[in-house]
């Protein structure tokens, strides 16, 4: 049944995008088209900055598989964004409340294009104000899986953080790995890295985003035309290659382990205790008394993390 849903989703979105692309082409020849010109560095008076760069993936086990593709992102100043611009995402005030920060909030994402949205990862950069200095304090990751459209949002420390995998991202990966997250504060350049540490496969997967701030005389709509669709094509094409290399296909955990989200939350508390005790995840459980005390203490608290269920027609 999921194969039928997938085929329907591809055909439906292709049809809608084609129709809306024709309308966009018609509107683009009219003189009313607005343009965006951006130049570094980003400041609090600008609403959006445009970035162009590449995404790189490398899987080292059980087979080697790597690829790179070009991508365009928008960095949106949520304090200056127009109301109702990002209906399914957090506002600046919501992000500040979630992260307990006091400064500006910027949102890195691929805007939807001609009726379609595809964002494997979006990031909120939340700053704190310390006197006259603004410092990047916390980030919120917003991870969406393909093709289900489920989403998980969670807080992480930008310098470096470990997060037990909370969402079925890629049907060629199980749920046992920890995500190691690291980002730099966006400026003229931005960088983001995620690696996966697995109890059996070790440090077997890495993904990075590197991008540079660019200027454009095109409208934002034209700049991001078909960008989400291109990302979706790359995702499905690489999945086909992994299947061809005989990498095991893993069913969605909702079919055989409905409590996978609760288990991910518990694993996260255990991981935070291990880090507090200065031990690796595999060895810290041997410190029985300290480990149990940490789990029971107020210092072991749940990471802020919320899920959005699968979207139609997968729901």
Automatic annotation (TrEMBL):
The superkingdom listed in its UniProt entry is Eukaryota
User: What Pfam family is a match for this entry?
Assistant: DUF1365
PANTHER family xref list: OS07G0153300 PROTEIN (PTHR33973)
Q: What is this protein called?
A: DUF1365 domain-containing protein
What phylogenetic lineage does the species belong to? Eukaryota, Viridiplantae, Streptophyta, Embryophyta, Tracheophyta
